[in-house]
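Input record (Table S2, row 293):
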Amino acid sequence: MTAQIIDGKAIAAAIRGEIAQDVQDLLTKTGKAPGLATVLVGERPDSATYVRMKKKACAEVGIQSFSVELPGDVSQEQLLQAVQALNANPDVHGILVQLPLPGHIDEEEILGAISLEKDVDGFHPLNIGRLSMKRRDPLFVPCTPRGCIELLDRMHIPIEGKQAVVLGRSNIVGLPVAMLLLHRNATLTICHSRTKNLPDVVRSADILIAAVGRAEMVKGSWIKPGAAVIDVGTNAVDDPSAAKGYRLVGDVDFAEAKEVAGYITPSPGGVGPMTIIMLLRNTVDSARRAYGV
Ligand code: GUN
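Output record (guanine complex):
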């Protein structure tokens, strides 16, 4: 069997069209554009690239960008003040503090200082708390997890009653995506570095979400025939034949797994494009909520 490829780029492009339309509707009704503020601390090249991509994606759909860049030795107080200024700005409907923050910064305090109504990353402790409880809807759902579920939904892959296995328990992906699967009535297993008999556990999955950050760790023999495989990993591996000297691969051995799975995302080109689109979605939803339209 060869899996059906879940084309994250194409699905993201379709959703981008819906979002652009929603931005136009908001402009017509209120004269206002949605606004997203990004906060970048320090000089990490990967973080700078992600923030640049997010701002570019905003421009493409008509979302206004607000950019705050602070030095790596910024104090906790200065960073808090920057967040509070954005909280107070009525043209800003979403605030994204790019992670990771430098070691001397108390990340939990910073994320907790973001106005609940502007927490488009969905990382505020209250939003995460609500996500983790029954019948407590968070205002925002974290972007990568929301993107994973959206891929399953747009491919009409049922979740309810299915055996779902999540590899990884990070605050950004593993934990929140597990909560979303539970809300959708999947039967859930979360695996991590101490899990015993990992291949056997993965083989039980009708839906596998791989988010561990280990290049091609999941082998084809670990996949249940017909399973839906969502690969969140994007790992650089040395490749002298590539122009940059490296190439990007997922957490799943794609060549092997696609021969067994029913559905599979490539990486890159699967979950990645969905993360930014869900950020745009959250930002527009926030603006609509702010203006009551
Ligand atoms: N760093 C890695 N992923 C993310 C994300 O989704 N949001 C933020 N703010 N930082 C990140």
